[in-house]
Design brief:
InterPro entries: DctP_fam, TRAP_DctP, TRAP_DctP_sf. It is built from 13 helices and eleven strands. It has 331 residues and is α/β, with parallel strands linked by helices. The strands form three sheets. The protein has a five-stranded mixed beta sheet, sandwiched between helices. A four-stranded mixed beta sheet has the order 8-5-9-11. The chain has a two-stranded parallel sheet with strand order 6-7. Helix 2 packs antiparallel against helix 10. It binds (2S)-2-hydroxybutanedioic acid. The site of (2S)-2-hydroxybutanedioic acid (LMR) has 11 residues, from loops.
Length: 331
């Protein structure tokens, strides 16, 4: 009797050690994004994977899917909400269906430079926006920089009148549509994965992006001119599914929180240099002339585009806009 009990127990133990489902499976975090690995966001995703797998071995596994290889624009947010991916970092232009306040970041000529963007993002108002979509099951974990946007086209753009009648690709953002309408150009919403071909085939004549996106997607090969306009910002919100994040074991979640802070510091420190390097690589490729605006010419773009603010003030909130403007003054 004792012997058969003992052998039944030994047998059960052997079976359980063979059955992987009995051992705690690692949590899988699928991180999907639309850009190349060598961009600020691409690098951030890979660093996140590296640190998580070093510090939470066997507990969490991160799978990174770059270049729209799993989900492209328009589908990635839905995938996050359905639990098909656990982390994404859409550009701040891609949130208008979920919150109107984040449209703030698309207002042309709002921030003088990326340091002002940084100050606003770290302010109570900026941090508040990270939590503004929790009722929709979206938690903002951090802001990641890409950088300031430059205009590109197949003709030189020095003053707003040069853009008149041209078709510009825009992200899915009503503010960006209005920004191009303000200079009498024709905006056309298009997902990121389609931009190169759109420019190559002439479906659109121009676009706006930081140097890192232009270079990594080879857009410079199909754009003869880039105007260094720094007219707006392209940054990201690193987001997760609120229920997923809150359901993680507390020790795992707090380690992930620490890693997010570390990766964010790294991405935001390196982004500007990465963009500058890509600007130099575009110059070296000799495909594209980079136009530097005089202060007077840049002023003309500002004057033409700034009326867009008024159109969105009601949706975004005048106080939020003032807080962002205040970030232009270094403390
Ligand atoms: C774009 O669509 O131009 C960008 O949002 C792509 C990205 O994620 O940087």
């Amino acid at each position: 009797m004792l012997r058969s009990l003992f052998s039944a127990l030994a047998c059960a133990l052997a079976v359980s050690s063979m059955n992987p489902a009995m051992a705690a499976d690692p949590v899988i975090i699928k991180f999907s994004h639309v850009v190349a690995d060598q961009t600020p966001k691409g690098q951030g995703a890979l660093l996140f994977k590296k640190l998580v797998e070093e510090r939470l071995p066997g507990k969490v596994k991160v799978e990174v899917y770059p270049n729209s290889s799993l989900f492209g624009d328009g589908k990635e947010m839905e995938a996050l909400l359905l639990g098909d991916v656990q982390m994404i970092a859409p550009s701040l232009a891609k949130f208008e269906q979920y919150t109107k306040s984040v449209q703030l970041f698309d207002l042309p000529f709002l921030f003088n430079d990326i340091n002002a963007v940084d100050r606003f993002q770290l302010s109570p108002q900026g941090q508040g926006l990270l939590k503004s979509m929790e009722s929709k099951n979206i938690t903002g974990l951090a802001y990641w920089h890409n950088g300031m946007k430059q205009l590109s086209a197949n003709k030189p753009l020095r003053v707003p009148a040069d853009a008149r009648g041209l078709k510009f690709r825009v992200q899915a953002s009503a503010v960006l549509e209005e920004q191009f309408k303000a200079v009498r150009a024709n905006p056309r919403k298009m997902s990121f994965a389609e931009v190169y071909q759109g420019l190559q085939t002439g479906v659109v004549n121009g676009a706006e992006n930081p140097y890192s996106n232009i270079y990594s997607q080879k857009m410079h090969e199909v754009q003869k001119y880039i105007t260094e306009s720094n007219h707006g910002v392209l940054d990201y919100m690193l987001i997760t599914n609120t229920k997923f994040w809150n359901g993680l074991p507390p020790d795992v979640r707090s380690e992930l929180d620490k890693i997010v802070v570390e990766v964010t510091t790294h991405v935001n420190k390196e982004a500007q240099q990465l963009n500058e390097g890509d600007k130099q690589r575009i110059l070296a490729a000799k495909t594209t002339e980079i136009i530097t605006l005089t202060p007077e010419e840049r002023g003309q773009w500002r004057d033409a585009m700034k009326p867009v603010w008024k159109k969105f003030e009601g949706e975004i909130g005048a106080e939020l806009i003032s807080a962002a403007e205040a970030a232009n003054q270094a403390q």
